[in-house]
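Sync notes, pocket subgroup
Present: LS, DG
LS reminded everyone that the earlier model was apo-only. Rerun requested with zinc ion included. Inputs:
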Amino acid sequence: MGAKAKTEDKKSLSIEEKIRALYNLQLVDSKIDKIKILRGELPLEVQDLEDEIAGLETRIDNYKGEILTLETSIANKKTEIKESEALQLKYNEQLKNIKNNREFDSLTKELEFQTLEIELSNKKIKGFVSDIEAKNIIIEDAISKLNELKLNLEDKKKELDGIVGETQKEEEALRAKSEKISENIEERLLIAYKRIRGNARNGLSIAPIERGACGGCYNKIPPQKQLDIKSRKKIIVCEYCGRILVDNDINLSLEEVEAKRIAEQELAKEAKPKRKTRKAAAKK
Ligand SMILES: [Zn+2]
């Protein structure tokens, strides 16, 4: 791969060291994941409540704005009524000095018209008042719901703060550790690691071999592949889930692994000659 030159400026780790760094990064990141699981859905619940409260406050503001508009409309209608009444006064004055029937008819018609106008305005005002009453009831309901939500939010926040407080120091230390390990891992691998982690439901990007299977997806790994993984000469991914596979003893050197294997063999020999004892020895 053409990335060789680039690989070497990152403290030129051997493949084995790279795998080990990834494995240790995974251990730390999995601990951070566990803390997050402990917090559970609380951060989301707090966010949801905050959104709901903001939405409700906007709705209340909107209703208040609508009420203001209605009050302006009422004031306008009242002004119109006063104008009509002034006109009626004027027409009544004029009625006292009419010169002919035509003038009388015209003034009477005007008076009737203004009476109708006043009736219409009063009807409109009544409508506006009942609209305001209805909106005030809605606002009252919304406010009591809002208070309820705010109390609920306070509780959830307290609960979350408590959990965060308990685990904060631990999480900070883990994050610092994660960053420090990441510094030693080349960009390309780190990106792959994060991508696999993001896709995996359990956040597992580096999977150990467990009973001959991938520790991430539990599909069997062929024996030859298991040997390749244990030899630590190249980065091998699970063909089913794409996770990077490691042997469980990655934090031991190959010499130490060999010594461990021999010791286990000796133990097995000393114990009952049954095949089964190997398993018991491996537990040690
Ligand atoms: Zn797998």
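DG: The longest strand covers residues 206-210.
LS: Strands lie at 206-210, 213-214, 244-246.
Action: DG to write up.
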